[in-house]
Amino acid sequence: QVQLVESGGGLVQPGGSLRLSCAASGSIFGINAMGWYRQAPGKERELVAEIGSGGRINYAGSVKGRFTISRENAKNTVYLQMNSVKPEDTAVYYCKAGVVGRYGTSEFRYWGQGTQVTVSS
Prior knowledge:
Layout: E1 2-7, E2 10-12, E3 18-26, E4 28-39, E5 46-51, E6 57-59, E7 67-72, E8 77-82, E9 91-101, E10 107-111, E11 115-119
Parallel strand pairs: 2-11
Antiparallel strand pairs: 1-3, 3-8, 4-5, 4-9, 5-6, 7-8, 9-10, 9-11
């Protein structure tokens, strides 16, 4: 019914930049919060950044000042601009969206497939 498709992951040098995108498609009435999470091997999935429908933003302390989350509502797309990346940023990055379907009555949270980001020399 609803799909989240991510792009932009890959290998990047320490100190470099990367931009992740995630577009939602399907039977969508509206999207509330959208966000990015990441999970490194042996670690739990953690919030990276989240942005509400009205633009309210929360960042994890570890990425604050380096990453920027944004969204284009007309495209049902959320972005994560990653600057000054560090090896510790290496993880699988997942996008999440709270979606109200056209024929539903409440929000359902969808997840993207995940995209690998590797920060290495």
